[in-house]
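Question (not urgent): is this output format expected?
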Amino acid sequence: MKHRLILLRHAKSSWADPGMRDFDRPLNERGKRDAPFMARMMRDSVGAPDHIISSDAVRAFTTAQFFAHEMALKNISTDHRIYEAPVHSLLEVVNSIDDQFQSVLMVGHNPGFSDLVVYLTGREVAMPTCSYVVIEFRDMTWAEVSRDTGMLLSFDFPKNHQ
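Got this back:
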């Protein structure tokens, strides 16, 4: 059994309202441009995932919606554990994925996502906004995913295409 986890850091968010709660920050104009562009890049190079799990923070969920639209996916589930999560919380989310899904896109935040890449693959990747990494796990269920069990297949980000 082979599983593929795609970790996507949310697109660039707005800081226009300094009094706004971090959780509620929307995407800025660059984020609204980058998200559909990177969704097309992912679709064309990696393919569409079977399922999307997103942080419920506004900027992450909006990014997930752009990706779902570009990939013609209907359902996005949210999981509050992804918001501002350390590695152990993110791993709980990964370990709880249903094995019916072979390819899952998880949308969230740094530094947790960059830390999770290191934990799962042993490879250090600094994830700018709207970047994604593809990690493959062979011969295991989602529940068995743990430290150094994944192989980093690809990493892409908006400035890679300028």
